[in-house]
Amino acid sequence: MILATFGNVVVIPLSVSFFTEEVFYNPAWISLNVAVDFLFIVDLCLNFRIGFLSHENGIVVLETEKIKNKYIKTWFIPDLVAVMPVDYVILITEVLEVHTSTTGIAGARVVKLIKLTRLFSLLRLLRFSRLLRYAHNWEEFHGLDVGAIATLLQFLHVIVVIVLMCHWSACFHFMVASIQDFPENSWVTREGLQNRSMIRQYTTCMFRSLCHMTTLNYGSRGVPKGITDLWVDIISMMVGTVMYTLVLARITALVTHSRVSENVYKSKCDELCQYMRLYRIPGALRERAICHLASRYQGKWFDEKAILMELNEPLRREIISYNCSNLIKKHPVFKDANPLYLLELLDKLEFECYQPGELIIGRGTMGDCMYFIDKGDVEVDSRGYTQILSDGSFFGELCVMTDITRRQADVRALTSCRLYSLSISNYEHVSKLFPKAMHGMETQAQQLLQDLKTIIE
C-alpha cells in the first residue's frame, strides 16, 4: 500500500497535466486506475478492522467499536473522498447525454467536461495523507530514534518531500496552461512546448518550478504576460518560500539534535584545551588529560546520573545491572550472590577510568573507598610485595572493611583501566542490609591484612 500510495501522488499529477487525451482515456490506463481505486477501497474497509496504539496507556486497541469511532472521527472523510471516482461518473454521464442528444451543444459540453474530469482526478491526491500516516506508524513502531541511520532516514524524508513539492508545482504550471488550451500569452506557448515530447515538457516545467520555489529568475523570461500565469507564479513563489523556510529549519534541527552527545563532548574537549593553554600546562600532561576524556567518554558526553535518575528505580537498577554484567560474571564473590544484594551494591558503585602509569592509590594516603576492576590490569606494590590484579579483582578493601584508615600499598594502572569504586558510607549501607552477603569480601580483607602483617614481620 505504501508503494501504491506513493505511486499515486507522483503519477496522478503527471497524468492530469502531461498525458494526451489518447493516453489519459486509453482503456489500459483507465483499467489500471480502476484496479488501484479498488485496492484503496479495500484498504478503506480494512481500516475499520485495523487496531491502533492508544497514547494514554501504550496498549494496542483491537475493539471493533473503538476502532470504527476513531477512524470515522479522524481520517475516514479524506479517505472516502480520495476513493470516490467522481471523474469517471461525470465522464460516463456526459457521454450518455451525448448519445441521447441530437444537438451539437452537448458535444461541446463533453469537450469541456473531459478536461474537468482531469481536475477531479486530483482528488486522489488526498491519498497523500495515507502516506504520511504510514510513515508515522512505521517510525512509531519500527523507527530508530538515535544514530546515524535515523538521521540519514530523516534527511532522505526531507529530500523526498522537497522533490515531491517541486513535482506537484511543475505539473500545476503546465496543467493551468493546458486547461486554457495554451493561450498565446502563456509561458508554455512562448517557450514552444505545446508539441514537444512529454519528457521535454516535464523537464522544462520542473526547472521552472524549482527556480520559482527557490526565488531564482532562471526559469522565466521576464514577467508573465497573462493574469493566470502571474498568479500561478505568485502561488509557486509563496509555497516555495514557506517550504524553503521549513526545510531549512528541519535540516538545522536534524544537524543540531542528531549528534548532541558528540557536540557536547567536543565542547568539553575544547574547553579543557583552552584551560590548559591558559595555564601553560605541559604538552605531555595535556595529552594525558585529553586521552583520559577520550577513554572515559568514548567521544560521547553523557550525564549518566541525571539520565538514570529520570527513570524509575526498577528500570534504573536493571540498566545498571546490565552495564556491570561483566563485573558480576568475572568476580567469584558475585557469582552466587543474592540478586537483591547485587542490585543494591551495583547501585552504589561509581565508574572511574585511569590511563596506563597513573597512580590510583598512594601508600600513606587516607582511604575512603575500594575498587572493583571491570577491565584492565593494575600493579599493587606494598613494601616489596608486588602483585598484578586484572579483570574481576578488587583492591583498597582494607580501609573500608577493617580499622585501618591509611593506604598500605601503591596501586598503579598498567593498562587503560575501567574501575568501579565503593565508598565507605555506601559499603556500610549495603552491609547493614545484607551482612551475610559481604562476608566473602570481608574474609579476603582479613586474610590480606594477616599477609601484610607477616610481610612486615
UniProtKB/TrEMBL annotation:
One of its GO terms (molecular function) is voltage-gated potassium channel activity. It is a multi-pass membrane protein. Its main location: membrane. Keywords: Ion channel, Ion transport, Ligand-gated ion channel, Membrane, Transmembrane, Transmembrane helix, Transport. The chain crosses the membrane at residues 155-176, 230-249. GO terms for cellular component: axon; dendrite; HCN channel complex. It is found in: Membrane. Residues 333-430 form the Cyclic nucleotide-binding domain. The keyword DNA repair does not apply. GO terms for biological process: regulation of membrane depolarization; sodium ion transmembrane transport. This is Potassium/sodium hyperpolarization-activated cyclic nucleotide-gated channel 2-like isoform X1. It comes from Clupea harengus (Atlantic herring).
